[in-house]
């Protein structure tokens, strides 16, 4: 087993496919409303709907789900509010807690975004047999564990310190 070749392939896969996926998603979703929403705005709407189903659609939970700061989320929410896709609501006694409520206008973009992801997952799954799907599932769990463990640490480090591959020959 050539670990250097595997390392190069993994790096290439992560970089190229991440960028390709974003371009495909952007192209597919730009057909909705002639580019009224950015990809990030679609993701904010999706997170608001997902967390609303769990009755946990606060700005704090949405920022955690998206892995962004409250400031970044607030900027997007201000834009989405102006466009009429969401509204901020303060409920209950703790007026500091802000809930993000999707409006009726956001339902169609939410459904389009979900449809894009469902079709993408279905297309990949159709190409793999059950054994390959099981291996892929386990590999994705390992990757998800890795990314969730390093993401907070990377966000807290200065830019120069957040270079995990600095001394490797893979990039």
UniProtKB/TrEMBL annotation:
PROSITE patterns: HTH_MARR_2 (PS50995)
Name of the protein in its database record: MarR family transcriptional regulator
Pfam families: MarR
Keywords, ordered alphabetically: DNA-binding, Transcription, Transcription regulation
SMART domains reported in the protein's UniProt record: HTH_MARR
InterPro entries for this protein: HTH_MarR-typ, WH-like_DNA-bd_sf, WH_DNA-bd_sf
Species of the source: Hydrogeniiclostridium mannosilyticum
Domain of life assignment: Bacteria
HTH marR-type domain segment(s): 1-145
GO terms, molecular function: DNA binding; DNA-binding transcription factor activity
